[in-house]
What does this fold into?
Amino acid sequence: MNFFRPELGNFIHVQPLIYEKPSSHNPPRHIRLLQPGAKIHCGRHLHRPGRAKPRARRPSPHIDPLTAQIQAQDSIFDDGSIPTTWENAGFNNPADFKRFLSRFKSWVRNDQPDSIAACIRFPLRLYPSSADFKSQYHQIFDPALKTAVDTFRLDRIFRNSQGAMVANGRIWFAPLPEGYRIIAINPQ
It folds into this structure.
């Protein structure tokens, strides 16, 4: 006889007890009782009743937080607002842009002004050249801005027809022919 056991996750085969003949002392044949110590055949193994077969646990697929944020839906934000589509903001490959932003976050976290300056479209309003930007880097990327950059989520990037912004509008990005570039750094 086969029975499905959800706690085991498969069918078990139980050998029925053979009764001589149904009577008032013996239950009918369709009711099968297990005697104490009876063995149950479960797939590849024999088990005793009352002892659950240890379930083989599949390791959950490990998805790192970066991949999760890149792949997460971002067409509606937690507050219910709906941002402009990536295409309307000029970004044809949002996953690639999010990977770029991940590198940008690392540059800010590790104080790499040369790497950041390499992806700025100069002149900016307050920083006309790369040298001006680098000389003022620590005033621009103060602890508050560094924290804002480090903690923004890649699946919650505001965007509109001008581009994408992070850190509450302090830094704006746009896709240009030479790649993703910072097009504005606004004072606090």
